[in-house]
Records
---
Amino acid sequence: MISVQVFCSLALSATFAVQVVLGDPISGLTSSKPPPPPSCRPGHINYCANVIIDLVWYLNEKNQCSFFVNRCFFKQQNCDLWQEDRPMIEEVSKEACQPFCANDCSQAPNETICAYSDKGFCTFPSKCEWLKYACNTGQFWLWVDKTPCSINNQSCPTSNSSSSERFDKLLFNF
């Protein structure tokens, strides 16, 4: 009787060990989900500084050029996508991305953007114009407010590039 109990205990232990190592297909413990990105840990919150400007370029789900202010925001977005079981984004070079910048702002709402750079403050006529300039030139102006600038305001630089005449609401992840 004792040998049967010992045998059963050993069999259960071995089964549990196999389930832990390989996953249990019956209860759904196995997953086709890839491992999380290195900086993505459950319960860990990244605090990203938006004053550190080092643009990370990618093509969004509409195949439009977009960017993150810096690598911290890029990594955080991939962590969020991973947690939502959505495809993660891949970084591309600025040169590969820029032909896909949205350049037609004729349908964009006129929502002024007060922005700042080392050159001072300026007011862009719309979010689209602000994104278009940053996308085409690689020169980033930090979005300060949705109202015209009132401090040391100057004309914003413009980008007349027309490598793409598309505008489907460009997503900027900040």
Note: Residues 2-22 form the longest helix (21 residues).
---
Amino acid sequence: MADHLSKIALWDPDELTILVSRDAHPHDLIRELHAILVIDFGAPSIPGAGLLCVCGEPLAIPDSIAIAATTPGASTL
């Protein structure tokens, strides 16, 4: 399991949801979501493909996170 992560995004297997810390930087969040999807759920990890569901379909990032991730001056992944 992705237990070594900093707990910005936490997977709750009983609810099948991922809870996100409000003060999380979008790039850190995306990194942790990727690790949770790949390590805990077994989703494929394809370089450059973004976040993928266990079925292989792309996952959409909510607009509020996607907008923050494209803010000028934000660090890149």
Note: The mean pLDDT is 75.
